Amino acid sequence: MKLVHSAAPPAPTAQAAENVLRRIEWTVLRRLDGALQGDYRMLVRGFGIDLADLREYQHGDDARTIDWNATARLGVPYVRQHNEDREVTAWFLVDLSGSVNFGSGRITKRALAVDFVAVIARLLTRHGNRTGALLYTDGIDTVLPARGGRRHVLHLIDRVARTGPASGRGKPTQLGELFDRAAQVIKRRSLVFVVSDFISEPGWARALAFLGQRHEVIAVRLRDAVETALPDLGMVIMEDAETGQQLFVDTHDAGFRRRFASLAARRETALREALAKAGADCIELSTGDDLADTLVRFARLRKRRAQLASGGVPAALMK
To answer: Is residue 17 predicted with pLDDT exceeding 50?
Structure first.
């Protein structure tokens, strides 16, 4: 059971989407521009086809980039590094099931998802790239084809903000269905953001790993602090936002809070292992954190990782 606040998303208007985008442009995007020094590729990488370098294989590298000729000559695995294409097609796989309506403070996980989609979509489209989306509620609700431009970003914001389970009480989330559908819909190699709290029936890791064989996948995990460490709130009703099941509990009981934290820790470990198996990078977005700071930390981490992994080899080996 999860302590949830399951409120239906407000009915937005075109002006509401415009307000979200303007707020994002004047706050988060301006800060990102300063922190990333204009190089948005620190956050998202392109998919080039021009060979730039070879380096020795390191743990975690994509096996598809192994250069077998150089590997055979040197006796150890080497991987190819490519120049980036200027154009990136990005897709958002957005989980909008009942559990994302929760937020223990002013911000819900759904609002965080809307802001994230707005930031990344606008960041990409203003550089001439395209973005699309698959929206999941208690099934695949909407497929929005990849397009560019500010008007398209407004459309994405509006659809993410107002999409939710039709009944308010759908079936338990099956993220595997979302990943399987994405593998069918997304034909061209793309950057794929999975925006979800990952509160789902198990078994999705294999489908995500299959998706990652063709695309670069970044998991964007939506979370709230109360979901991992339950505070002393006295007697409360805990409700599963997706099935409607309720349980009356005493959160003043320290033993209950310890058991809750233990179960949350085990779920955390299983989730991290599943994402690692799928080869997906992960951005942790908490309702209590600053979105711009989180994205800057993630971008700098990826840059440092790329710098540590890069190591040139003699040009003769690239022939």
So the answer is: yes
Mean per-residue pLDDT, 254-275: 88
Q: Which two tokens stand for residue 259?
A: 């058991």
Per-position b or e across 236-259, b if 16+ CB within 10 A of its CB: eebbbbbeeeeeebebeeeeebee
- Terminal-to-terminal C-alpha distance of the chain: 58
Q: Is the dihedral of CA 232, 249, 261, 219 positive or negative?
A: negative
What is the rounded CA–CA span in Å between residue 91 and residue 194? 8
- For the segment 125-160, what is each residue's pLDDT rounded down to a tens digit? 988 899 999 999 887 778 999 999 999 999 999 999
- Percentage of the chain surpassing pLDDT 90? 37
What domains are defined for the chain?
Answer: 14-40+88-288 (3.40.50.410), 49-83+295-319 (no CATH)
Tokens at 246, concatenated? 């309720």
Residue 146, Cβ neighbours under 10 Å: how many? 18
Contacts with 79 (C-beta within 8 Å, 6 or more apart), sequence order: 54, 55, 56, 57, 61, 62, 65, 66, 67
